[in-house]
Amino acid sequence: MAASQFDRTADFLGLDNAVRERCKWPKRLITVTVPIQRDSGETEVFFGYRVQHHLSRGPVKGGLRFHPDVNLGEVAALAMWMNWKCALMDLPYGGGKGGVSCDPRQMSEHEMESVTRRFATEILPFIGPETDVMAPDMGTNAQTMAWITDVYSTHKGYLAPDIVTGKPVELQGSQGRDMATGHGVAFLITRAFSKLKIKEKDASAIIQGFGNVGYHAARTLSRYGVSIRGISDVTGAVWNEAGIDVDKLKEYADKTGGVIGFPDAAPIDPDDLLIQPCDALVPAALERVINDKNAQQLQCRVLAEGANGPTTPNADAIIEQRDDIFLIPDILCNAGGVTVSYFEWVQNLQRYQWTEEEVITKLETKLETAFEKVIWFSEQNKTPHRVSALALGISEVAATKSIRGLFP
Question: Does the first or last residue of the chain, that is N or C, have fewer Cβ atoms within 10 Å of its Cβ?
Answer without folding.
Answer: C
